[in-house]
Fold this protein.
Amino acid sequence: MFLICTESAVAVPTDDAPQPDRTMLASLVAAGLVDDPSEATFEPLTGGVSSDIWKVTTSRQVFCVKRALAQLKVEAEWLAPVERNRFEVAWYEIAGSIVPGTAPEVLFHDDTAMLCAMTYLDPACHRLWKSELRDGHADTDFAAEVGRRLAAIHAATAGSVEVAARFPRDDIFHAIRLEPYLEATATRHPDLRRALFGLSERTAATRLAMIHGDVSPKNILVGPDGPVFLDAECACIGDPAFDLAFCANHLLLKSLWNPAARDGFNASFTALARTYLAGITWEPAADLEARAASLLAGLFLARVDGKSPVEYVTNEADRERVRRCARPLVINPASTLDAVLAAWNEDLDR
């Protein structure tokens, strides 16, 4: 349900514990999720850079509330429209109707404050995929299921006029994905400017299905019934190849984080790609794979030289290793994901 709230007289707890601001509290009271803020417990949740997120505990339930930030929590200036919260809600609702359990349930959305409340997923039975990979637990069946669910969502929304109507904007995707990743990377690699901007422009112009836009292991939970996708703030009508490439990129980079688990990461990369490609119904699989492979090279480079570098690649020698692999693939794109994987492993074996 959609609610519009105004700042009203809301009792704000006076102890020293961190609290949401009055706007968020007013919204939660108007929604009927919180009766008296002084009797609720608010716990700030960390892990993302784009939103203010709280775990809220009342006598009746536990849930999360999330509000988009205009300036992302990074060192560089990185501004993005807060209306992305509206499209995150749309992705959850649509994806959840296609593959039940694949997204948290939305409890309410405040279209004025640009915040939403959703079910709280207990970490005891919803482990973070990123943490699993960090610890070397590379489950190929789980990676394959990520690919299967992504393909199912893309297939069900491809060409849908009704779905497209819920995503009328594409500037947000440019602001929080194409510009900070592909275009910003061109400032560090001016000789690749034409190629990187070409990837950005092609991706922006390819509007085929509803995409998540941030399919990263940090946004995927290992739930009791399979993958649960979070943080769909980049959702739009776009190129499904971006979701595939964005996720595959992380499986390449994890070999720098936990080299001992490299074989498992490689197997997960292959399982993700092959299962996803087998589910393509809206275009020739080879066409999408070629776009994904070329995007993967640009995104790979972006995670060391864009506005949002991965936090675990801190060694300059490792950053240079990524550049050494990615740059030739940006200049002369591969047509298959297997070719990108092979190039990365060849470099790691040097």
Summary: The two ends are 56 Å apart (CA to CA). The chain has two domains: 2-119, 127-348.
